[in-house]
UniProtKB/TrEMBL annotation:
Coiled coil ranges: none
Protein name, per record: Thymidine kinase
EC numbers on record: 2.7.1.21
SUPFAM superfamilies documented for this protein: Glucocorticoid receptor-like (DNA-binding domain) (SSF57716), P-loop containing nucleoside triphosphate hydrolases (SSF52540)
Pfam families cross-referenced by the UniProt entry: TK
Assembly and binders: Homotetramer.
Primary location group: cytoplasm
Taxonomy, superkingdom: Bacteria
Amino acid sequence: PAGRLDVIAGPMFSGKSEELMRRVRRAKIAGVTVLVLSHSLDTRSDLSAITSHIGVNIPAVPVGDVDSLAEAARAEDYDLVAIDEAQFFGPDLVPVVMELVEGGATVIVEGLCVTFDGGPFEPMPTFMAVAEDVLKLTAVCTICGRDAVFHQRVGAPGRTAEESEPRATDIDASHIGGSESYVARCREHFAPPR
Ligand code: ADP
C-alpha cells in the first residue's frame, strides 16, 4: 500500500525543526524504522545532526543533493523518511519524495515555504498541495510579537541589506544562518527587499 506525505512548513524560527524532531522521537519510541536526512550545506548544524534554534539536535544523515538523498532513502525499506530543510534540495526533490510515498513510506518534508522577499519557496508549496497533512507554523514577530509568516534578512555589518542581497531563491550558504542574518516579521512589519 502507498504511504503518506506530511508537511511541516513556515518561515525561519517557526519551530519547524523542533516539530520534526518531536515526530522523529515519537516514531523511534514506536519502533518504526526512521531515516532522517539533512542537507550538508546546512552549516548551522553538526553535519550528522539536525539542530533547532535552541540547540537541541537529533542524528541525521547529511546529503549534498537530490541524487544522494534518493540513494540513501532507497538503501533500506524505511517506514519513515524525514527531510530537514527541504528547500535546499530544490524542485527535483518532488519526484523522489513521491516515489518514496508511492512505495509505502511515510515521508515528512520540513522546510521554508517563503523566501526572505516574501514569495513562495519551491518545492514546499508543491508538497503542501499534495500532502495528506500540512502543518503551517508561524514565528513571533521581533517587533510586535504577533504571528510572523515571514522572515527577512538583516544587513551584514558594514554593508546594507541590499548590498549583501542574494537572489531570494539562491540555494547557497548565504541562505543559511540563524538569528545573525534573519529576523521573523508579521505582515505589518515585513519590509521585503526592493
Ligand atoms: P525553524 O526550524 O522553523 O527555523 P527551530 O525549531 O529551529 O525553528 O527553532 C524554533 C525556536 O527558536 C523557538 O522555539 C524559539 O525558542 C526560538 N526563537 C528565536 N527567535 C524566535 C522568533 N522570532 N519567533 C519564534 N521563535 C523564536
